[in-house]
């Protein structure tokens, strides 16, 4: 007997369509048994709440980076104006660097911390959007952020150290100093651009802000590489080809290695 037949027979029992009492009792018993079994064993459901997407540690890191830049703005009133002028013009950049007005003594360490914080949050959001394809809980967010903080710190410190040692080795200290400060300039500018956009991206449900930020980051990296290559062209004792190989080895190769490690989950 299918469900539809059972339904109509049940209607007949209730309406008194069956003349045979035995037949009616059978269907009435089936009906009572069917209803009793459904109600006899209620199901207890204990839902487990899902962990929510966390931006707490991103917010703390970005807040600290913003505090560093705000403090520098209060202490060094002309810093951001000089930074903007140096970014737009290389002659002004060289003049400010020569006069010690671009990065005054005592600013390198706090600026380095702000750069590491902003780039680490950027990489965390990149991980969520394009690598893991998932949003992290609060504990996972802290673990991943610490991983990127350590990675960015080691990467930038190692790169600056390699450039400095290569300058001593090849006797190009003046050009190496200009190149390193140019790299630091672009990293500082990128952090200033990143901080407000990362705040918006962290709390936004749309990925548009993040991908806009990704395009800006690629453009800044491209401009930094172009100006770095222009600086290297002034080293007359080496050919343009040697300078290009030098830049690719110390700039592009480490980035590709880190990218490969992150994509393979080995970092």
Write the layout of secondary structure elements.
Blueprint (H helix, E strand, L loop, with lengths): L2 H13 L5 H20 L15 H20 L3 H10 L1 H10 L8 H24 L6 H32 L3 H31 L4 H26 L6 H24 L4
Helix pairs in contact: 1-2, 3-6, 3-8, 4-5, 6-7, 6-8, 7-8, 8-9, 9-10
Describe this structure in words.
This protein has 267 residues and is mainly α. The protein has two domains: 3-40, no CATH class; 56-263, no CATH class. Helices cover 79% and strands 0% of the residues. The protein has helices spanning 3-15, 21-40, 56-75, 79-88, 90-99, 108-131, 138-169, 173-203, 208-233, 240-263. The chain starts with a helix and ends with a helix.
Q: In a nutshell, what does this entry contain?
A:
This protein has 10 helices and no strands.
């Amino acid at each position: 007997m299918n469900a539809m037949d059972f339904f109509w027979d049940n209607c007949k029992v209730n309406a008194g369509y069956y003349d045979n009492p035995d037949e009616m009792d059978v269907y009435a018993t089936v009906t009572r048994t069917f209803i009793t079994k459904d109600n006899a064993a209620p199901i207890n459901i204990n839902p487990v709440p899902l962990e929510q997407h966390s931006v707490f540690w991103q917010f703390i890191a970005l807040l600290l980076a913003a505090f560093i830049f705000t403090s520098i703005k209060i202490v060094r009133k002309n810093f951001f104006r000089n930074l903007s002028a140096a970014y737009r013009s290389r002659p002004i950049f060289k003049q400010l660097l020569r006069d010690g007005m671009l990065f005054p003594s005592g600013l390198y360490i706090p600026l380095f911390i702000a750069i590491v914080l902003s780039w680490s949050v950027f990489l965390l959001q990149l991980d969520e959007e394009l690598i893991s394809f998932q949003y992290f809980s609060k504990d996972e967010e802290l673990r991943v952020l610490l991983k990127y903080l350590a990675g960015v710190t080691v990467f930038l410190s190692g790169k600056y150290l390699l450039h400095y040692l290569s300058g001593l080795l090849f006797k190009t200290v003046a050009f190496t100093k200009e190149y390193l400060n140019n790299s630091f300039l672009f990293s500082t500018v990128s952090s200033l651009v990143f901080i407000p956009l990362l705040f918006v991206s962290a709390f936004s449900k749309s990925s548009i802000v993040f991908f806009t930020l990704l395009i800006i980051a690629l453009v800044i990296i491209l401009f930094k590489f172009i100006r770095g290559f222009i600086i290297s062209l002034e080293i007359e004792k080496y050919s343009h080809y040697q300078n290009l190989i030098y830049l690719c080895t110390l700039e592009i190769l480490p980035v590709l290695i880190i990218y490969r490690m992150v994509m393979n989950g080995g970092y």
